[in-house]
Amino acid sequence: MQSRELNRFRRYQHMMMYGGAATATAVVIAAFVINAISTVSAYTARESELLSLDVRPVIDFTVRAEATLRSNVQSLELAWNAGGAAPPDTVARFSRDRNLLRVQQTPDVLQILVAGASPSNPPAPAAGRFIRLSETMAGPSTVIAARNGGELTAYLYSTDRSLMLLTASPWPSDVRWATLLANRSTLFDALAGPQGKPLLPADAPLRKPGTTWPAVHWLPAYDSPLAGQRRVRVAAAMLDSQRKPFGVVVVERSVEALTASLDAASLNGSLLLLARDGTVIASRSRHPVDNRTIAAAREALADGIGTARQRANTTDYRLAGWQIGDTGWTLVHVESWLGVATELRGPLLTSLATTSAIRSATPA
């Protein structure tokens, strides 16, 4: 009888001992998991906050570009509506030179090239007015180039695509101009959009809703024939005194200038600047951006990242997004969970070592 009682007591004692150890182990593991989750959450919040600081200059860049374009469009509209035109002998010289005329009022302002869509057709009826308009375009263009470190590519064209005014700083060589103008139809199509597919669609707003300001339109990145490199463009229509468009102004900016504030060297993961349709305008990363990363960014864009919400998580990636002003573009940060684990390897290993030491010190 006594032996049975002793055996029963020993069984209870073993259950308490091993049950207590299991409970202690569970508590320690739970503490490690909670600490790991807290570490990852703090890391992702800190990374998003730091990236937000880098994104702000990109937004400011677009706001400044829009304000500058609006101001210049309004100046050009005022000059056009004043009704001035170049003297007949200047228009005649334009015609003799195969519908080309280089205008430079003084040596300290940028040159403007006035070009007709065809080298052989008679000058367009509005040629004199557009030649005079080139004088208004030169001064502000010179100021903009100076503010941009001497860099500018800009042009305007008539709504009927018969005339175009072009300026660039640095000014292309004569050989470069000869190459560009060898096929004017190709040049006009590249800059103003092909026939039947204008740069600004017919239904594009001409004025910013609720204001008298010119409506500004950011266009997809393209390979600029003027600059010879990848550029983004911002455009606005010009209206005459009857509120009808008579031309379109376009300013090009380099993708590098747009994303200059995004430091890839200190970046974990990848940053992708996406257009509304998912086209990659620019990317920044310490490593080559693979197709899976791009696909994850596009999927997040379709799900409303940057607009409906700022952050999103998938099985493979964590993502964050920021809408870039009124451009219609979204900057998406994509980082794999493997990358997060690599970045947090030190803190997580320290936490694991601490957890193991606590468990080892717990009586069995």
Keyword list:
five-stranded antiparallel β-sheet, 22% strand, seven-stranded antiparallel β-sheet, alpha+beta
Description:
The protein has 364 residues and is an alpha+beta fold. The chain contains nine helices and twelve strands. The protein has helices at residues 2-81, 88-96, 127-147, 174-181, 184-192, 255-258, 291-302, 337-343, 345-361; strands spanning 100-103, 112-116, 152-158, 163-169, 217-223, 230-239, 245-254, 270-274, 280-285, 311-313, 317-324, 329-336. Strands 1-2-4-3-7-6-5 form a seven-stranded antiparallel sheet, with helices on both faces. The protein has a five-stranded antiparallel sheet with strand order 9-8-12-11-10, sandwiched between helices. A hairpin with a 4-residue loop joins strand 11 and strand 12. The longest helix has 80 residues, at 2-81. It is elongated. The two termini are 30 Å apart. 31% of the residues are buried. Residues 12-18 have low confidence and may be disordered.
